[in-house]
Backbone:
């Protein structure tokens, strides 16, 4: 039993109360505090030096990434972000300018999305820096998009291009808040998740929550230039497609809609977001698990996606 | 410039929005989201192995402490806690039972105060464990007790006994939620703060926010048995009084009320909380800074209180 399996076992038994609409386990918790017509979204996430960023990463980008990860989770619920609190852990010998840089990155991204930063704690951390952010958001009551709503026959969509994020994009990605709000206003999104662990891993999370399976079309997986270029450098040691499925840290949106919505969605998306690719990568099936279909037929996908902890 | 001075400079310039009633810098942020008659309280805090707990601390107590620190901040605003989210950082070689123990400590304390735990993230942290908790609470609109409301002439009160907490109590303390609610329902509490950095340090935070000073009565400072016993063992190297003023991690409440409320408060407190000491330790003055008065007269208090980072 790893720590992660253990936590997965613990989460369903955590204390709850009458305010909890959705507890731990989705991209955000959903709370009903009696706000007319609205629910709150609540989420925390941490980035750790040596795990989510390397010591030579620009401090501004570390701050950006820490907040952007939480905002990506708010986006994946179809919500808007309102405020954030920050805990910063610093080794004793860290240049104070580093902490200032982290806050510059936090501040710039927060301003862009009108997020107030309403708490900043700093603590010592002997060996490596970390940054933990919690975000409070809102969504129309009953409209939070969960992982559990996918239906057999749904079309599966992915924004952007996947793989190779650790070459740089993981520190600079844009949370898809605007796109998710647009999407949820215009279409009945059945299920949504943000891609942090890789398409293969996060699709499985969505499928398990929805008690369904999926078939992906190999040729439809949007492989990023970074993944292709890494595959060329490695002389095929890691195929670009595998990278797109399992690298993780893409922070794009994966969602499903009824098949009748697929073509209208693609049409309207091109007008609304001409610079961001949206691709239909497959469909939801009743058979559990994930299958990859190419010209030679369909085969089970066994790769599990990127796991941070190693 | 230390990291902490830097953050203190950064906090006032953090992004805000129309929902923010009180931003970073008090025990909790206060948010007005349009909830009829109520404001939200929002706070995050982290405990780090080697700084806030030692590797041999019981895991349950680490979980208890991490949540109790946030609940103590909710208490210091006069509020109630509703939900919490958790980020746990774990070294790769950590026994999974340790993470389970942390969650047992979190769960037990959360159940006691009807706090829902609605998010649990786990991440690798190469060298030392950490636990970051964010808590969402509520308070009657306009009734949050800030650090900034102390008035000249106010009586200064402290719950419990101070000093020597690191001998054990810092891992097992009870957040003063019940006492703070009782207090705020019955009395006009002008200013309040929870004692995390030590009476000397946290009183200064309250005084600076209120633009006043204070005179403490040496004989009235409630020195804990742990501080007295440590002082005996050290043969006076650290006086018990100094320990009570500067050790920190007491997580008791420091607050001020009008002088006319002092005697009724002490009377009613004895009936309500017969097992928890409440002491009047001094008064608010117009002259800035802190003075200690004993039989020989008054002298400035220069000790700055416990600073975690060293």
Residues:
């Amino acid at each position: 039993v790893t720590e992660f399996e253990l936590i997965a076992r613990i989460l369903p038994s955590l204390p709850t109360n009458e305010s909890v609409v959705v507890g731990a386990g989705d991209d955000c918790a959903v709370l009903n505090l009696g706000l007319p017509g609205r629910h709150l979204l609540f989420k925390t996430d941490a980035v750790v030096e040596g795990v989510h960023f390397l010591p030579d990463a620009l401090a501004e980008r570390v701050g950006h990434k820490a907040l952007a990860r939480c905002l990506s989770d708010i986006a994946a619920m179809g919500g808007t972000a309102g405020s954030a609190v920050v805990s910063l852990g610093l080794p004793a010998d860290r240049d104070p300018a580093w902490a200032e840089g982290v806050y510059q990155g936090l501040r710039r991204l927060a301003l862009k999305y009108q997020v107030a930063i309403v708490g900043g704690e700093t603590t010592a951390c002997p060996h490596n820096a970390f940054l933990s952010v919690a975000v409070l958001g809102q969504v129309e009551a009953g409209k939070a998009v969960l992982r559990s709503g996918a239906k057999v026959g749904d079309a599966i969509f992915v924004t952007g291009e996947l793989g190779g994020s650790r070459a740089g994009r993981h520190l600079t990605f844009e949370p898809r808040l605007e796109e998710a709000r647009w999407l949820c206003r215009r279409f009945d999104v059945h299920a949504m998740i943000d891609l942090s662990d890789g398409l293969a891993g996060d699709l499985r999370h969505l499928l398990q929550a929805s008690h369904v399976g999926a078939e992906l079309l190999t040729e439809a997986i949007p492989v990023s230039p970074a993944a292709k270029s890494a595959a060329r450098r490695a002389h095929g040691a890691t195929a670009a497609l595998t990278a797109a499925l399992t690298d993780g840290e893409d922070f794009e949106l994966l969602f499903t809609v009824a098949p009748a919505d697929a073509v209208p969605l693609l049409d309207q998306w091109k007008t609304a977001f001409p610079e961001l690719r949206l691709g239909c990568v497959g469909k939801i099936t009743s058979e559990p698990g994930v299958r990859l279909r190419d010209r030679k037929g369909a085969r089970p996908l066994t790769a599990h996606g990127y796991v941070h902890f190693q």
